[in-house]
Design goal:
Blueprint (H helix, E strand, L loop, with lengths): L2 H15 L2 H6 L14
Length: about 40
Amino acid sequence: MTNARLKEFLDKKVDEFNQPFFIEHDPICIPHLFSKKQD
């Protein structure tokens, strides 16, 4: 895979997963429940 194709693939994945609706179904959503980083 060339660097250009890899970048295109990763950019598509960012667009797919960097959405608010994804966060609520993300298994790592638990940290989003806390308002302070210290929590």
